[in-house]
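ping. complex inputs:
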Amino acid sequence: MQSQATQIAILILITTFIFLLMPLFLIIYIRSYTRHKKNHLLEKEHMRQKFESEILHARIEVQDQTMQTIATELHDNIGQLLSLTTLTLNSVNLDDSEKAGKKIGNSLSLINKSIKELRELAKLLHGEQVVENGIGYALDQEINWLNKTGAYEIEINNSLVDLTEKSPDKDLIILRLLQEIINNIIKHANATAITFNAHYEDKILHLQIKENGIGFNYEQAAVAPSGMGLNSIHKRIEMINGKLILNSSPSNGTNILIEIPYP
Amino acid sequence: MNFFTPIVIAELICLITAVFFLFKDNISFWKINIAYLLIALSAEARGSFLAAHHHHNVGLFNTFVLFEIAFISYGMYYCLKKYTNPRPVIFTGLVICYLIFTFFTVKNGIHAYNDVFNDITVSIMSVIFVLYCLYYYYKLLNDEEVLDLKYHPEFWWVNGVLFYYFGGTAINLFYGLFNIRIFEHIPLRLFIYNIINIILYSNWIYSYLCRAKQRKLQS
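pong. complex structure:
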């Protein structure tokens, strides 16, 4: 009887112990889950801040690029035109009215050309405010400026001007990508013809840049630490969940295809 | 003194902590904790005193069960209302508990009120309160807001309740069936009640500390 009572006592004690352990494990689980949820939210916030900082960075770079372009244009193009105008006007001989008239006419045409160049620059500066008018417009402005230099034979197929979807943050990064690719072409490619294709299909923005330059060894360039270009392009594309396909080999030109989910 | 049992001591410490930390609280639930602890301490102390003098104290604890049902239900209502409208659930629980209490009091006979403990009410009430606690945890997990549970007063208050009512299940179910003593003279039932009461009041003391800290940070 005594041993049976003891056995029952032990049974009740063990049952109670188990019944106390269960809430303990439940509480541990809940605390662990809440901790993970908190960490997840912190990580999400951190990534959001990183993304915003990258956007700011891209914005500054776009501004720098535009400023550089304007500075170059002012110095090389407009500066030259106005200097020539000054020279021409200085050489006017008021006694020879026929020749003076011709020279004044030339000066007027030079000034008109300067005004036209300034207007183009203003458009570029305004276009740098970018995404108020949409990515199609911004890309157009950038490519038109390149076209204006006359250094390349350019073919443009840009159907993004009519795009109704907008994503200002992605637009800025896409514009910056295009600027970097154009810079690379100007600096390294020795190309004579460039083709730009841009269209929007199935919620994906497709951008293709093809040139007939000297090409390069893509694998080597990707590994080599020299230059920010390729790494920066890859980083930016990854940030907006895009895809980059680059085909290039020495003397075969380069074909870059970018696909970005949009908006 | 015979009535300074472990439960009485735990309740006394809990009451003193509650008075110190919750007296100036602007939320009524926390202040009601003080009132409840006072009632619980009085009942427990009086019960121990009566037992020590070989008088029946079951009627006292039967009456105390009524306060216990009301207070714990109110506590769970306060904790749950942040996430949902708990009125239907809480009122259903209250009705079930009081109906069962009334039924078994009448069944045992009013004359037996001081002799027969209404253990079935306690068993059913324990199950209901455990379900409330699990419902609270479910709502807490599903909520978008991220809380620092280490210092969340409601979480620790509910923890205490869960430990007490879930841990006491075995002894509630076997109430009256065995009059087993361990360590030669301590009834097993009382031994387990001591442990789960200490766990309950420890959790509540910590929740009062967390509440005081929360008030300080909010002010």
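The interface with chain A takes residues 137, 140-141, 146-150, 159, 162-163, 166-171, 174, 178, 180, 182, 188, 192, 195-196, 199 of chain B (CB under 8 Å).
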